[in-house]
Amino acid sequence: MEPRTATASKRLQVIKALSSDGIPVGIMNAPIIPGLTDHETPAILKQTAAEGSLTAGFTVVRLNGNNGRLFEDWLLKTFPERADKILNQIADCHQGNLNDSQWFRRQKGTGKIADIIGQMFNTAFNKYYRGRSMPTHNKNLFRRGGNLLLDL
Predict the structure, then answer these.
(1) Which of 31, 36, 47, 69 could link 61 by a cystine bridge, Cβ 3.0 to 4.6 Å?
(2) Residue 62: exposed, middle, or buried by beta-carbon count in 10 A (0-12, 13-18, 19+)?
(3) Whole-number Å distance between alpha carbons of 9 and 76
(4) 73 Cβ neighbours under 8 A, 6+ residues apart
(5) Is the pTM of this model over 0.85?
(6) How far is the C-alpha of 144 from the C-alpha of 90, rounded, in Å?
(7) Which pLDDT belongs to residue 147?
(8) What is the DSSP string of the chain?
(9) What value, to the nearest 5°, has the Cα angle with vertex 116 and ends 113 and 121?
């Protein structure tokens, strides 16, 4: 959907390659667009877990400034029969607006649609990511002043 970005299959290849090399991988399922991409969440979590991802998160779309107008224009051209429903569901997640600037609330949204998205994500996460977690950070490798002081 987003131009000039890696395809889903390429992203899955990266997850597999990194995790196969022992590099911990987590994914961000974002932005979830109510009425357009929300139904993909379980399949995304299933596939990313199968490729070795250790954790996952999500955000609900919010359309800041010009992004709202650009998205609405794209939506009306691409999915004219669904545009009103999608825009109304996005607004439902952000207290009647397409955007919300309030920290934390803006990431997950509020209201019935946001709750359904959160429940769907949590159900899939618990199914496919059970028992997985990112490794703890090795703080012994921290160097006061940063790694710029390394002698090479």
Answers:
(1) 31
(2) buried
(3) 27
(4) none
(5) yes
(6) 45
(7) 64
(8) --TTS--HHHHHHHHHHHHHTT---EEEEEEE-TTTTGGGHHHHHHHHHHTT--EEEEEE----HHHHHHHHHHHHHH-TTTHHHHHHHHHHHTTTSS---STTHHHH--HHHHHHHHHHHHHHHHHHSTT--PPPP-GGG--TT-GGG---
(9) 130
How many other C-beta atoms are found inside a 10 Å radius of the C-beta of residue 85? 13
Dihedral, CA of residue 110, residue 112, residue 114 and residue 118, to nearest 10: 120
Per-residue pLDDT of the chain (152 residues; tens, 9 = 90+): 777 889 999 999 999 999 999 999 999 999 999 999 999 999 999 999 999 999 999 999 999 889 999 999 999 999 999 999 999 999 999 999 999 888 888 899 999 999 999 999 999 999 999 999 999 988 887 777 766 655 55
Q: Which two tokens stand for residue 141?
A: 């490798």
Q: In 3-state terms, what secondary structure has residue 60?
A: strand
Residue at 63: amino acid letter: L
Q: What is the pLDDT of residue 106?
A: 87
Number of residues in the chain: 152
